[in-house]
Amino acid sequence: SMSGLPFWGMDQGGFCVENRYMKAQGEYEKTGIENEDLREWRELQTRWSQFGAFIPLFRVHGQWPLREIWNIAPEENSDLMMMEMGWYGNYAGTNWLGIGEFAEHFDAPLADATISKVNIYFGKTTAATTDADIEVKIVAAGDDGMPGEVLGSTSLKASELAYDPTTVNATEFVFSTPVEVKAGTEFFAMVGPFPNNNGDDIAILLCRRGEGEKCTAYHFVYDEDANYNYLETGTWYQNTDDPLSMAIAPLLKYSEPTAISSVVGDKQEVSRTYYNVAGVASSNPFDGINIVVMRYSDGSQVATKIIR
Q1: Helix (H) or strand (E) holding 30
Q2: Tens of pLDDT along 104-152?
Q3: Cis peptide before 193 (omega within 30 of 0)
């Protein structure tokens, strides 16, 4: 495209890949077990698709292992749970362990972006201290890889947290001014502290993984004085002893739009599905980059890329 040829792309995923990836996909199809090779493949294909979203022609090519963006995201939604710690409360929520704030780590965006809101999915929201402020911040990663400079913040009252036992609902923490995140900047979505008076019982849903697996959750532990009173100082830790990710989703919008293509025909459209760059499907468009798959009455389908 730099030479003036706009019709340029690549085989995202590569036409031929290592046998271990193909074997891992086959094992998953038979047993439902996602081994290390398949996790590596999904991460590679996700990165490849993210890059492909910024070039003129988005084209996924190859057959096995699965390369389509809607086949990449691991099926972890059904595994969402709370981590209850008995008398000590909840991880990622109300607790009596001196853990003040929790932070979910996110990789650096590939282009300058803004974050207008953060969706957090709670598993319980019982609040005796209904007027307590639950604060959410976007924080840049420091040189040590831990949460550092605060880029923006917002808050809701504990009484405003959303919860429905029959489904998974998001609580939207909206910023009055969109938070800017520069390309190449790793960041955290930080939440807390939570009220921990008698009757308070709040917990964020999370996905727990096995030993040595991916962990994106961090927590801040307050220092104590000689009488075991908590101080304002403390230390951030990554929760590597129990690898997990919290159900926290910042909504990014890229500052510089890429080309938008569309397909118009005389066939009747019967369904439309939106996928973000992580392969998550929705009937509604995501903020940022979307891969739109339109299915028609004759059985054909067309995929296109949009930015919103």
Answers
A1: helix 19-31
A2: 999 998 788 899 999 999 999 999 999 999 999 999 999 999 999 999 9
A3: yes
